[in-house]
DNA sequence: TTATAATAGTTAGCCGGCTAACTATTAAAA
DNA sequence: TTTTAATAGTTAGCCGGCTAACTATTATAA
């Protein structure tokens, strides 16, 4: 899932120069936006690295989690796609690769021949259970610097950003 | 640059169930981590969408910015790669596509035949200058919900996260 | 009942990340 | 000076996103 993290970020001076030309530029906001991207990407990079060491990617990990919690540890590709928020085409690829690794089993349904059952295997279970403790530990490490008040604070700020993003999205959809 | 945004995020109940098995799980931190990813991805999705409407991607946009500010609006691919924080292979692809669009001009150096000059064209300039006002406006919209104090607050929190990420990264590199 | 529409999944091909292997050129060392 | 290193860039091929076009099956409507 990994994005580059552009290194040469504009400093205050360069932003000021731009502001001379583009009066609508709000330096503080632009700077915050870039900082937000930067922080996320550095964090995500480390997270992806840890996943990769375990033969995982974030989407593969999440799919394992979905199956883990599913009744009979079984789900349809269409349901996985919906839960994951990715297209069926993407899920189709992921599932195929996971089957090759022996983490899941595919079997066609008898009632609806269009449908497919995706079931977690023992191997898949092990891969997941082996990674979970590391997962929680990494997340703790990455956010280690925040006190519980700060966690609450950040949570509130994120909620606000979600609201404005949501608002903007809705305006665009009109 | 676009990532999926997984839809079925674990709620408090599911996290509690996991905590029964994995005592090292810190629900608040895990929830924050997922919220952070969610917020970033929703925001980025809208940003990418706006870029796309202008025939741009974030990396293409940033490269245009680098060239825009460069002396003689010219840079070497290796320098672009370094500034962008992406590999030369990636930049090679991007540059090729941008040349096809007529946004840049490639010319081999006379002094060092290995080197390549990448120069912004008039067309490239127009594409950039056309997008810039929209760019600033979108960023403002996406972060519209934050007061100036909240901007400062968030900026500080991001800095802290950068610190813990940095610390974790260094530990991993040992 | 038969034709049409909706649904489930796959495939092909694009994009932008990546690594690894390659060519060409220049610089450094023997 | 000649061999070896380093450097600049490209290419091939993997990954995981995407859309659009496809097959097969099931459901709906004429």
3D architecture notes:
- Chains A, B: This is MarR family transcriptional regulator.
- Chains A, B: InterPro entries: HTH_MarR-typ (IPR000835), Tscrpt_reg_MarR-type_CS (IPR023187), WH-like_DNA-bd_sf (IPR036388), WH_DNA-bd_sf (IPR036390).
- Chains A, B: Residues 22-163 form the HTH marR-type domain.
- Chains A, B: It holds the Pfam family MarR.
- Two copies of one chain form a homodimer.
- With 174 residues, chain A is mainly α.
- Chain A has three domains: 1-53, no CATH class; 56-143, Orthogonal Bundle (Arc Repressor Mutant, subunit A), CATH 1.10.10.10; 147-174.
- Helices cover 67% and strands 7% of the residues of chain A.
- Chain A contains seven helices and three strands, in the order αααβααββαα.
- The first copy, chain A, has a three-stranded antiparallel β-sheet with strand order 1-3-2.
- In chain A, α2 runs antiparallel to α6 (122-142) and α4 (77-84) crosses α5 (88-100).
- The mean pLDDT of chain A is 93.
- Chains A and B meet through α2, α3, α4, α6 and α7 of A and α2, α3, α4, α6 and α7 of B.
- Chain A binds a DNA duplex (30 and 30 nucleotides) through α5.
Radius of gyration of chain A: 21 Å
Query: Which architecture name of the largest domain in chain A does CATH use?
Result: Orthogonal Bundle
The helix fraction of chain A, in percent, is 55-70%
Average pLDDT number of chain A: 93
CATH class of the largest domain in chain A: Mainly Alpha
CATH H-level homologous superfamily name of the largest domain in chain A: Winged helix-like DNA-binding domain superfamily/Winged helix DNA-binding domain
Determine the most extensive contact between two protein chains: A-B, 76 and 76 residues
Distance between the termini of chain A: 30 Å
Tally of separate domains of chain A: 3
> How much of the sequence of chain A is in beta strands?
5-15%
Low-confidence stretches of chain A: none
Assembly state here?
homodimer
Pfam family, one (chains A, B): MarR
Protein name (chains A, B): MarR family transcriptional regulator
Organism (chains A, B): Acetobacterium bakii
GO molecular function, one term (chains A, B): DNA-binding transcription factor activity
């Amino acid at each position: 899932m990994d994005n580059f993290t552009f290194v040469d970020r504009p400093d205050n001076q360069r932003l000021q120069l731009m502001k001379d030309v583009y009066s609508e530029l709000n330096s503080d906001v632009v700077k915050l936006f870039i900082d937000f991207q930067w922080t996320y990407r550095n964090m995500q990079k480390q997270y992806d690295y840890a996943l990769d060491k375990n033969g995982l990617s974030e989407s593969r990990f999440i799919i394992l989690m979905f199956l883990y919690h599913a009744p009979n540890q079984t789900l349809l590709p269409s349901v996985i796609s919906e839960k994951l928020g990715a297209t069926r085409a993407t899920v189709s690829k992921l599932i195929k690769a996971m089957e090759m690794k022996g983490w899941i089993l595919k079997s066609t349904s008898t009632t609806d021949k269009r449908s497919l059952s995706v079931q977690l295997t023992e191997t898949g279970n092990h891969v997941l259970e082996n990674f979970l403790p590391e997962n929680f530990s990494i997340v703790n490490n990455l956010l280690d610097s925040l006190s519980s008040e700060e966690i609450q604070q950040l949570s509130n700020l994120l909620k606000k950003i979600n609201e404005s993003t949501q608002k903007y999205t809705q305006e665009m959809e009109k």
